[in-house]
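Me: I keep going back and forth on a fold encoding question. No explanation is needed for now; the record alone will do.

Assistant:
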Amino acid sequence: MVKPRFEGETKEQKFKRIASMRTLRVLEDLRLLGNCSNSNNYRYTQEDVNKIFSTIEKETKRTKSLFDKPRTEFSLK
């Protein structure tokens, strides 16, 4: 897949564009996951549900921590 380039786009603009699209995709997938709660169509245990959301919460915390890292800059100037 060839990704389009946006001429003159700043790093901030690029971040906002990409992060917005990815956030929308995550939210849509969570909504779709919610469809699995329909007990007329699916059978699951509370243990299954706990595993799913425990994994999602762990990954959410791990991903958030990537943004919280202090950024050290180095220069030999």
